[in-house]
């Protein structure tokens, strides 16, 4: 029996995803995520005997309520709503629809969760635990962590770093980020030393006559270390460092990079450029981390904060 094509392969969605890639430079991961979100929406609409060209606002509201019913977080619902809005605006702009049923939908209320951050001492323990593995595996993992903490890369940027990114200037790292935009990020001395050591070990890991354009090559389909494998190795390093693995992820190291820079006096604009944020408002979340830390320090150590209030009267 021939399977029906998934919604992600429907003509309207395919055109939408092609537009995202061509006009906005959307990454493969973004396209996959958008396609999956729209596939879930299509499955819901199909059960109501509607589709992208016939769905009305009532159906879309019912879909959002169904997400809440199955326990999705407000942030995830908001992301799904964002994808829907972009998709239906696209259909309207392409004159595939005469209206935009998503334009009247309300966004779920979001709290502002602060990013998880490791302390400097915990980052040091993590790198030491990675380095304690056997020479090659330890050298590779220590280099990955040193670069991640020194440059605040997204995990996809880290694992796919080309060899050329570190060959030109050892004091700077050339990173190709979202939207295929390049940025230069300064490297710390420990990161530079780790890279030099890894390049020496890396040559010994390639078979005779074998070459790779990636800094962290792999014989897998991608040709480089995968995000999933790196996340797995990171959990193992956390265990070795005596840190709860649930507190550690590639993104947590990126948070630590930004928060520690700001705590050390770096200006917000510089941190924005190094992180590759298009909007400085995204970077400002890290100032709230510092605010919360200062507030807790005052509450814990300031003598007036510890004084009990006298009862009124």
TrEMBL record:
Statement: the UniProt record of this protein carries the keyword Signal: no
Description of how the protein assembles with itself and partners: Forms a cyclic heterotetrameric complex composed of two molecules of XerC and two molecules of XerD.
Signal sequence bounds: none
Domain Tyr recombinase: 113-299
Lineage of source species: Bacteria, Pseudomonadati, Pseudomonadota, Alphaproteobacteria, Hyphomicrobiales
Residue numbers annotated as active site: 154, 178, 251, 254, 277, 286
UniProt xrefs under Pfam families: Phage_int_SAM_1 (PF02899), Phage_integrase (PF00589)
Entry's localization field: Cytoplasm
Annotated function: Site-specific tyrosine recombinase, which acts by catalyzing the cutting and rejoining of the recombining DNA molecules. The XerC-XerD complex is essential to convert dimers of the bacterial chromosome into monomers to permit their segregation at cell division. It also contributes to the segregational stability of plasmids.
InterPro entries attached to this UniProt entry: CB, DNA_brk_join_enz, Integrase-like_cat_sf, Integrase_catalytic, Integrase_recombinase_N, Integrase_SAM-like_N, Recomb_XerD, Tyrosine_recombinase_XerC/XerD
Keyword field: Cell cycle, Cell division, Chromosome partition, Cytoplasm, DNA integration, DNA recombination, DNA-binding
Database matches in CDD domains: INT_XerDC_C
Species annotation: Reyranella aquatilis
Domain annotation Core-binding (CB): ranges: 7-92
Domain of life, source organism: Bacteria
Name of the protein this chain belongs to: Tyrosine recombinase XerD
Keyword DNA-binding on entry: yes
PROSITE patterns: CB (PS51900), TYR_RECOMBINASE (PS51898)
Family the UniProt entry places it in: Belongs to the 'phage' integrase family. XerD subfamily.
């Amino acid at each position: 029996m021939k399977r029906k094509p998934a919604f992600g392969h429907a003509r309207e969605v395919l055109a939408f995803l092609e537009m995202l890639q061509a006009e906005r430079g959307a990454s493969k991961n973004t396209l996959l995520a958008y396609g999956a979100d729209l596939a879930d929406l299509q499955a819901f609409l199909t059960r109501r005997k509607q589709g992208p060209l016939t769905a009305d606002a009532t159906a879309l509201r019912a879909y959002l309520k169904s997400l809440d019913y199955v326990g999705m977080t407000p942030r995830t619902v908001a992301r799904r709503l964002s994808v829907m809005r972009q998709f239906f605006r696209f259909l309207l702009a392409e004159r595939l629809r005469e209206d935009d049923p998503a334009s009247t939908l309300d966004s779920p209320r979001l709290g502002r969760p602060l990013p998880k951050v490791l302390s400097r001492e915990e980052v040091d323990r993590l790198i030491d635990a990675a380095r304690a593995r056997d020479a090659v595996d330890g050298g590779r993992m220590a280099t990955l962590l040193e670069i991640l903490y020194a440059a605040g890369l997204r995990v996809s940027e880290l694992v796919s770093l080309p060899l050329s990114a570190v060959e030109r200037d050892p004091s700077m790292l050339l990173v190709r980020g979202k939207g295929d935009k390049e940025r230069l990020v300064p490297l710390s001395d420990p990161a530079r030393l780790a890279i030099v050591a890894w390049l020496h070990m890396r040559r010994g890991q390639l078979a005779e006559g074998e070459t790779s354009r990636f800094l962290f090559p792999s014989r897998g389909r991608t040709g480089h270390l995968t995000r999933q494998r790196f996340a797995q190795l990171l959990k193992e390093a956390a265990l070795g460092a005596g840190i709860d693995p649930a507190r550690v992820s590639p993104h947590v190291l990126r948070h630590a990079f930004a928060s520690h820079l700001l705590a050390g006096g770096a200006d917000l604009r510089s941190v924005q450029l190094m992180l590759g944020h298009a909007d400085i408002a995204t970077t400002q979340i890290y100032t709230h981390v510092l605010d919360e830390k200062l507030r807790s320090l005052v509450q814990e150590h300031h003598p007036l904060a510890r004084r009990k209030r006298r009862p009124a009267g």
